[in-house]
C-alpha cells in the first residue's frame, strides 16, 4: 500500500501532507545547514493514532522521525533515511493541573510558554525556560532535556519529570513512572527517554512536577571591562553570598553587538567586554533588595564598571529581549555562522573563551560567547563575512571547538543535543564502553532501527 494511503487510513486524508511546500517546512529544523526530504508527514490527533501510525510503519519497515515544533538546533527532527515525519503539533492540550499534588499532565505538542502561563495562573511554577519557549514544544524539551537560564538554580527538564506515556518502536503504548515525587521501583525508565532525541519512542503524554511560583524578581545587568573579571565574579557570587540567583547569564561584546544589530536597540554599557545578566527571585521584597545590594557591592569590589538594576518591567523586558535575541542574532546578522553549545566546568569559561579566540583568529573568524555562566553551558557562535572560506574551514573549526571543550573537562553539548550534527564528535566525548552501552540500549528498544534513524550515533 502507498505510504499516503496507509497513514490516511489512520488519521484521515487531511492530516497526511506530501506536497513540496510541506516538505520544505518539515524537512528541516532550526539547524540552518541541513535539509532532508521526508517520505510523508503525518499529524496524529492522539496517542492511539500515534500508536497505530507507528505500528503500521513498523510492519512495513518504514523509518519514523518524531517532531515537536522543529526548533531543534542539532538536526534531531531531520527526516533522514526517507522517513515519515510524525508531528505532534496537534496534541496540544494540557490535560490536568493539580494544585494539591503540584503537578501537570500535558500532551507533548503544547508550546512551553503556554504551559508556563497555564500553571502560573494557579500560582505554580515550571522553571525550565529555553530561550525558544514561545515556539518549542514540551515533548521536544523532554526529548532534548532542554535547559535555559534558570537551570543554575532550578535545574533542567529532567529534574521535573515524573512520568511519561510513550509509543514504543513497535507501536505499543507504554506508561513509565507515575505521579509520585519519590520512586525507586525498578530501573528509572522515564528518565531514559529524557534526552533520547526521539530515538527510543514517541512521547505522547508527560507528567511534570511543579513548585510554588516565586512572586518577585529583580534583574541586574553588570558590565565588566574584561570577561575574566566577569567570570571571577560569577564564582564569587555563588561562593560568597550564600544565594543562588535564579539566572546568571553572560554575554561577551561580540554577542551584545550582534543583538544590537538585530534588534536595532542599544544595550546599556555595550562597550564592556563581559556582561552579567542576573535575576534574583523570591517572595520577600526586603530579602531580594538585600540580596541585590550585596550582589552589586560584591561585583563593584571585583571590578564591575557599574551595576544597573532594571527598575520597571519595560527595562526588564528590554534586557531579556536582547539576551533571547543573541542566538538568532549571531546566526542571522553575519553572512556565515555556526553555533555550538558546549559545557565546561564554570571556572574554565575564561580559558575557553581565550583559547577559542586565539585558535580561530588566524582563520579570520570571530567568536561570540554567551549563555549560562552559572552552569558553564556556553553558546559559541563562529562568525565570518566570507562564506566560501568559512565553509572550507568549517570541519576544522568544529573540531577545534569540540577539542577545546573536551580538553577543559567539558562536553560537546549542554542542552541542544547530539542529533544529526554533533554525532561526528560523539566518540571523542564518550568512552568506548559508554558508546557500546548506548548502542546496546538502542538495539534492545528499537532492534529494527526505525525510530529516528541517523541521530546520535
Ligand atoms: C532561537 C532558539 C533558542 C533556543 N534556546 C534554547 C535554550 O535556551 N535551551 C535549550 O535547551 N534549547 C534551546 N533551543 C533549542 C530547541 O528549542 C530545543 O531543543 C527544544 O527542546 C526543541 O523542541 P521542539 O518542540 O522544537 O523539538 P523538535 O526540534 O521538533 O525536535 C527535537 C528532537 O526531539 C524529538 N522529539 C520531539 N518531540 C518528540 C516527542 N513527542 N517524542 C519523542 N521525540 C520527540 C525529535 O525527534 C528531535 O530529535 C533554542 C532554539 C532556538 C531556535
Write the layout of secondary structure elements.
Elements: H1 3-11, E1 16-17, H2 20-26, E2 40-42, H3 47-60, E3 64-67, E4 84-87, E5 94-98, E6 103-106, H4 112-120, E7 124-125, H5 138-144, H6 151-154, E8 161-167, E9 173-177, H7 189-192, E10 202-209, E11 211-212, E12 216-224, H8 227-240, E13 247-252, H9 253-263, E14 274-282, H10 285-301, E15 308-309, H11 313-332, E16 336-343, H12 349-360, E17 366-372, E18 377-384, H13 387-407, H14 426-429, H15 432-445
Parallel strand pairs: 2-4, 3-4
Antiparallel strand pairs: 1-2, 5-6, 6-10, 7-11, 8-9, 8-10, 12-14, 12-15, 13-14, 13-17, 16-18, 17-18
Helix pairs in contact: 1-3, 9-11, 12-13
Flavin-adenine dinucleotide (FAD) binds next to strand 3, helix 5, strand 10 and helix 11.
Descriptive report:
The chain has 457 residues and is an alpha+beta fold. The mean pLDDT is 95. The chain has 15 helices and 18 strands. It is globular and about 70 Å long. The two termini are 31 Å apart. The protein folds into 4 domains: 3-87, 2-Layer Sandwich (Uridine Diphospho-n-acetylenolpyruvylglucosamine Reductase, domain 2), CATH 3.30.43.10; 94-212, 2-Layer Sandwich (Uridine Diphospho-n-acetylenolpyruvylglucosamine Reductase, domain 3), CATH 3.30.465.10; 214-332, Alpha-Beta Plaits (2-Layer Sandwich); 334-427, Alpha-Beta Plaits. The site of flavin-adenine dinucleotide has 38 residues, from strand 3, helix 5, strand 10 and helix 11.
Amino acid at each position: 500500500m502507498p505510504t499516503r494511503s496507509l497513514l490516511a487510513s489512520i488519521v484521515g486524508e487531511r492530516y497526511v501532507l506530501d506536497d513540496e511546500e510541506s516538505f520544505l517546512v518539515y524537512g528541516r529544523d532550526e539547524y540552518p545547514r541541513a535539509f532532508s526530504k521526508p517520505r510523508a508527514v503525518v499529524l496524529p490527533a492522539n496517542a492511539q493514532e500515534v500508536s497505530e501510525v507507528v505500528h503500521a510503519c513498523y510492519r512495513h519497515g518504514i523509518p519514523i522521525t518524531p517532531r515537536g515544533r522543529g526548533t531543534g538546533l542539532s538536526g534531531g527532527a531531520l527526516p533522514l533515511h526517507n522517513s515519515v515525519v510524525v508531528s505532534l503539533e496537534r496534541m496540544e492540550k494540557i490535560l490536568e493541573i493539580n494544585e494539591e499534588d503540584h503537578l501537570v499532565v500535558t500532551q507533548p505538542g503544547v508550546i512551553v510558554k503556554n504551559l508556563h502561563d497555564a500553571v502560573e495562573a494557579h500560582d505554580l511554577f515550571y522553571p525550565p525556560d529555553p530561550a525558544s519557549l514561545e515556539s518549542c514544544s514540551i515533548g521536544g524539551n523532554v526529548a532534548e532535556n532542554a535547559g535555559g537560564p534558570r537551570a543554575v538554580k532550578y535545574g533542567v527538564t529532567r529534574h521535573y519529570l515524573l512520568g511519561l506515556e510513550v509509543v514504543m518502536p513497535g507501536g505499543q503504548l507504554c506508561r513509565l513512572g507515575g505521579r509520585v515525587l519519590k520512586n525507586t521501583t525498578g530501573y528509572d525508565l522515564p528518565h531514559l527517554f529524557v534526552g533520547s532525541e526521539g530515538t527510543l519512542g514517541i512521547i505522547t503524554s508527560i507528567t511534570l512536577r511543579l513548585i510554588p511560583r516565586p512572586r518577585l524578581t529583580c534583574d541586574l545587568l553588570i558590565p565588566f571591562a574584561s570577561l575574566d573579571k566577569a567570570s571571577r565574579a560569577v564564582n564569587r557570587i555563588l561562593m560568597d553570598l550564600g544565594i543562588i540567583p535564579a539566572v546568571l547569564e553572560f554575554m561577551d561584546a561580540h554577542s551584545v553587538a550582534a543583538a544590537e544589530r538585530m534588534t536595532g536597540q542599544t544595550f546599556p554599557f555595550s562597550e564592556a567586554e563581559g556582561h552579567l545578566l542576573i535575576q534574583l527571585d523570591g517572595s520577600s521584597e526586603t530579602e531580594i533588595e538585600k540580596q541585590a545590594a550585596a550582589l552589586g557591592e560584591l561585583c563593584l569590589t571585583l571590578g564591575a564598571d557599574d551595576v544597573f538594576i532594571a527598575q520597571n518591567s519595560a527595562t526588564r523586558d528590554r534586557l531579556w529581549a536582547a539576551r533571547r535575541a543573541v542566538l538568532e542574532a549571531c546566526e542571522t546578522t553575519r553572512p556565515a555562522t555556526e553555533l555550538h553549545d558546549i559545557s565546561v566546568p564554570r571556572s574554565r569559561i575564561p580559558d575557553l573563551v581565550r583559547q577559542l579566540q586565539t585558535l580561530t583568529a588566524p582563520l579570520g573568524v570571530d567568536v561570540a560567547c554567551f549563555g549560562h555562566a552559572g552552569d558553564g553551558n556556553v553558546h559559541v557562535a563562529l562568525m565570518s563575512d566570507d562564506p566560501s572560506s568559512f565553509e572550507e574551514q568549517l570541519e576544522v573549526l568544529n573540531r577545534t571547538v569540540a577539542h577545546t571543550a573536551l580538553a577543559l573537562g567539558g562536553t560537546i553539548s549542554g542542552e541542544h543535543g547530539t542529533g544529526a550534527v554533533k554525532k561526528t564528535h560523539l566518540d571523542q566525548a564518550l568512552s568506548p564502553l559508554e558508546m557500546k552501552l548506548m548502542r546496546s540500549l538502542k538495539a534492545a528498544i528499537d532492534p529494527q532501527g526505525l525510530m529516528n534513524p541517523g541521530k546520535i550515533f
